[in-house]
Fold this protein.
Amino acid sequence: MGRMVDLDDLLDVGDVADLLGLTHKNSVTTYMRRYSDFPSPVVEFAGGKCRAWLRQDVKKWSENREV
């Protein structure tokens, strides 16, 4: 069985960019390539054109990067 998530905790690429303080949502893809520890999307379909991350995964990653 897959991971249970609250839909309110899902972020699209624009939300992830906002949370990380990025100017462009395309920068999220750059982060995914650049940082091997960047959180994986919990939802991904349409060949990667639709992705969603868990808010707590992205926040935790961001907090750990600021150390």
Notes: The radius of gyration is 12 Å. Strands lie at 10-11, 43-45, 50-54.
